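Key result, reporting period 2: structure in, sequence out.
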């Protein structure tokens, strides 16, 4: 299963049970002008268990126009990328040139049968 996120969109899908992250792909395109093209992309857990469990899980430095993101979770790491019901996985990329850069992400998720 995949979910599409992009730009300034704030999509917050919810499911009955948890999910496992499989991949994140991102593409960035300059549609006008010239300027700063790169910024850090971060994945942050906003835990249903409370703020004490929130954490930055991954940072890819300096991605953007000309530097796409392709994060693929290896099979032997998959268990470390499971999230509980009501956990939020927040993907942040502070667009350095909002008026002139468009971007989108494809996020591959697998729904879990039961995540206590």
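The corresponding designed sequence is given below.
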């Amino acid at each position: 299963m995949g979910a599409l996120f992009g730009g300034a969109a704030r999509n917050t899908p919810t499911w009955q049970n948890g999910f496992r992250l499989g991949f994140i792909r991102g593409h960035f395109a300059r549609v006008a002008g010239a300027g700063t093209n790169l910024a850090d992309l971060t994945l942050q857990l906003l835990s249903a268990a409370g703020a004490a469990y929130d954490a930055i899980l991954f940072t890819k430095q300096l991605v953007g126009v000309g530097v796409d993101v392709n994060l693929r979770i290896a099979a032997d790491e998959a268990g470390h990328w499971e999230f509980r019901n009501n956990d939020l996985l927040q993907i942040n990329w502070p667009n350095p040139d909002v008026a002139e850069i468009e971007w989108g992400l494809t996020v591959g998720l697998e729904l879990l049968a039961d995540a206590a």
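Confidence is low (pLDDT under 50) at residues 1-9. Residues 2-111 form a domain with the Jelly Rolls fold (CATH 2.60.120). This case is discussed further under Risks and Mitigation.
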